[in-house]
Amino acid sequence: MGIVVLTMKASVIEMFLVLLATGIHSNKDMTKKIKRPKFTVPQINCDVKAGKIINPEFVVKCPAGCQDPKYHVYGTDIYASYSSVCGAAIHSGVLDNSGGKILVRKVAGQSGYKGSYSNGVQSLSLPRWRESFIVSEGKPQKGVTYPSALTYSSAKSPAAKTGEATKAYQKPPVPGTTAQPVTLMQVTGATATEATTTSLPKPSPSAGSTTSSLRPQPMGHRSWELDLWSTSSYASGHHSPRANPGEMDLWQPGSVLLDAGFVPKEELSTQSLEPVSQGDPNCKVDLSFLIDGSSSIGKRRFRIQKQFLADVAQALDIGPGGPLMGVVQYGDNPAAQFNLRTHMNSRDLKTAIEKITQRGGLSNAGRAISYVTKNFFSKANGNRGAAPNVAVVIVDGWPTDKVEEASRFARESGINIFFITVEGATESEKQYVTEPNFSNKAVCRTNGFYSLNVQSWFSLHKTVQPLLKRICDTDRLACSKTCWNSADIGFVIDGSSSVGTGNFRTVLQFVANISKEFEISETDTRIGAVQYTYEQRLEFGFEDHSTKADILNAIKRVGYWSGGTSTGAAINYALEQLFKKSKPNKRKLMILITDGRSYDDVRIPAMVAHHKGVITYAIGVAWAAQDELEVIATHPANHHSFFVDEFDNLHKFVPKVIQNICTEFNSQPRN
């Protein structure tokens, strides 16, 4: 019996152990399932920019085909958040054009990004940007949880904007709760004033190591302290020398009005009852401000820029009889906020300025200058013709595109370009500047009159009076388009045998006397000359000489040819060899001098010249046929044709020819 009992007990114990083991294995399996959740890698398109994604660190999958140059990348190794994420991954060598998974980490903004060609992708250079990112292979790190779904910023702009990027996920604080650590990429949209009184928690060690593992931030690095808080050391470990927090108390927007002797607010109510001013007649200019609305300028600096415009509007006596002012804001592309005729007094202008909102994007000042030249200074937009055109470009640091060609075209259109460069590039930052010496390449003249360099945005208000003093000094606005600086003048000179050597020298003196009345340069009036007999010869073209002294010397060197008189063929030759190379924004003037009737027909060549917009003056001497002169001359013929009885009297007609040229110019629209 005893043996049987023991056997039964052993069986029971064995069954218990089996059940216990089964339960343990079952628990282990459940534990494994809990510890290993399935991670889904989010997919993005090739055009998604890092700045649009709020998450500070994430793994994503890129599709194939992101090597296309339309997906812009800015920087090398460390990329501006304005870059295509997948394009940067290919440029860095982490991916090829077939796509794949990558790990992206947000880091602090840099003071400049150097472009380079790598792995089939040409990255571009860019000035400082508020945020950067680096790319590595898409292998999740142990102990780090990555989001299966990405959080995107507001879609108002192609780039994530400070403040706007946080409104989509920002929650109001709950009393009694503990503040969560905030990294540089997850800052709430507090104002500068609120931020200075808020105690910010320290970043986690992992967040700190992300920044410190990179190279130290260059001196002059612009962090977000102007827009969000004043302690840039939180983001980069040191205070930015460009934005000393102490400066924030030195000047408050609007204080310049009282400093400059303006009327206090309490007195404005009595002034509003006075008649509306017609404007200051001593400062009659058509003025356009091109303001920087790029993302890198930030909200705080953009507000300072708007206050500067308001100060200008207050200081100027805006009105139809004085200065008129419009504003164009530029980022990726320019847009007119309002034109010259929109607001006819300073009060309305200031109200409109306050309503301007920042566009974001890059800092394409060159594109903005082209826009202003082609669109802004038109009669439809309020351009008055009799007032000088002035464009003031404000740029934060440096433009992201080139300004030279656009500015040359603007100058040739008679626009006086001023450049205000705020916090320009330091020596260490100059390597990132797209176009070195851009300001001198843009302004009307390089004598310092048209350029103002401001060390800090907090000092911009001090520029109001110096700028307005220059703008209102209309006698010094050298680029204003006038009768003297806006033409391509082509002389067509009869060198036939009937003229003779002595008289030919008299004709050349007549040509020189007219030429020296004009302002001659490559951007002002240009002079060319053709001599003809039966044949034609180009003596010099519009692009051959760019100073008055060179032109006068070239005229002296013209040699007498001798031969027949084929005036019709000479007009055709001048159209092809001279005026075909005339600039589109120049007035084309042909001054033809002959002493006899042409051997060929002049009617068709003259009609072609008129059809092509060439204003033709015909000057006949001695035996010239007056009916031919009237056919050659632009209508009305009595204003464009002259007859001189002998060569020695040619000089008497110089003032009359000049007067008619300028009278005609002043009667035409300015641009």
From TrEMBL:
Q: Where is the VWFA domain?
A: 286-471, 488-657
**Does Ubl conjugation appear among the keywords?**
no
Query: Which keywords, in A-to-Z order, does the entry hold?
Result: Disulfide bond, Extracellular matrix, Glycoprotein, Neurogenesis, Repeat, Secreted, Signal
LCCL domain: residues covered? 40-133
Task: Report the principal subcellular site.
Answer: secreted
Q: Which domain of life is it from?
A: Eukaryota
Coiled-coil stretches: none
Query: What InterPro entries does this protein map onto?
Result: ECM_Assembly_Org (IPR050525), LCCL (IPR004043), LCCL_sf (IPR036609), VWF_A (IPR002035), vWFA_dom_sf (IPR036465)
Entry-linked PROSITE patterns:
LCCL, VWFA
**GO process terms (BP):** extracellular matrix organization; nervous system development; positive regulation of cell-substrate adhesion
Cite a GO CC annotation: interstitial matrix
| Span list, region Disordered | 192-220
Localization: Secreted, Extracellular space, Extracellular matrix
Q: Signal sequence: where?
A: 1-26
The protein's role, per its UniProt record: Promotes matrix assembly and cell adhesiveness. Plays a role in spinal cord formation by regulating the proliferation and differentiation of neural stem cells.
In Swiss-Prot or TrEMBL terms, this protein is called Vitrin
Source species taxonomy = Eukaryota, Metazoa, Chordata, Craniata, Vertebrata
* Gene this chain is encoded by: LOC111158449
